[in-house]
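Researcher: I'd like a structural prediction for the single chain below. Treat it as a standalone chain; there are no partners to consider.
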Amino acid sequence: MDRAKEMTTDTDLIAKAQEVVRHRPLSDECSAGAVGAAILTKAGNVYVGVCIDAACGIGFCAEHGAIAQMVTRGESEIVKVVALNEEGKFLPPCGRCRELIFQVNRKNLKTQVLLGRGESVRLEELLPMRWQEQWK
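Model: Treating it as a single chain, here is the predicted structure.
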């Protein structure tokens, strides 16, 4: 975790998310890039992704795109995550993304979710009553 902190500041992570935000139509039914996300892993790597919005609901959030890149590279532990829209507004992960972040590695409950410059919360604060606990 120290390596990740040394290598990437919040400002760097925000900039990486902003770099990929660019809304673009893909077809009559689909567009991409209205939201960009960046995640910092325990190993110090940064992965980015964009949302894909599809008319029939099969698209996915920017966090999913970044997580897919991370998992493809053999990682699963996230130190920080940030998502931004085209106006630069910080967006907390939706419920589906919160659950995915948790499920790829339970240690991710400690992930810092950036909500603004100098403002963050841990994922566990956004996901306080996990359904898995009810099944024990």
